[in-house]
Amino acid sequence: MAKSYSRYEYETSPRKLEPNYNVPKKSPTKKKTQAKRNVSKKKQKELKRKKIKTTLYVLIAFSIVFLVSYRNAKIDENFAEVRSLKEEMEKVEKENAQLEVSIESSLNLTNIEQQAKSLLGMQKLTSRQTEYIELPKTDYIEPAAENVVLEEEKGFLEKVGDFIFRII
User: Residue 123: what pLDDT?
Assistant: First the structure.
């Protein structure tokens, strides 16, 4: 609610308020001022320590964030490299498949014969160049006279057990 004043003001400027000063009646003693100074110095030291701690915490947090982002960047780079290597491998595999198809298509008998005639100067055999050989139908492989027995090498404990078994 607005206060009503007894007199009317014609001016547009507000009236001036007088400041309310609290003046201490007694002056403080030297001991009290020194104690206040010591307390204020301690508070200042504590404030400095707090500021330093917060600064260190901020730096540590920033370094952690930086390391995480750096690690993620490296991971992304490695994934991109893997992706590019896979694409390159797919291209090489396609090229190999195409080469295999072309080799298989060129390996038919007519192509080989044609290349032998044109590149190497070869010709088909005539009946005069063919020679026939007669071989007897006996077997030239002789069976082994001795029986070969293959034994596996036994371990130390098996040898000791066999030795004891032979003695008994």
Answer: 85
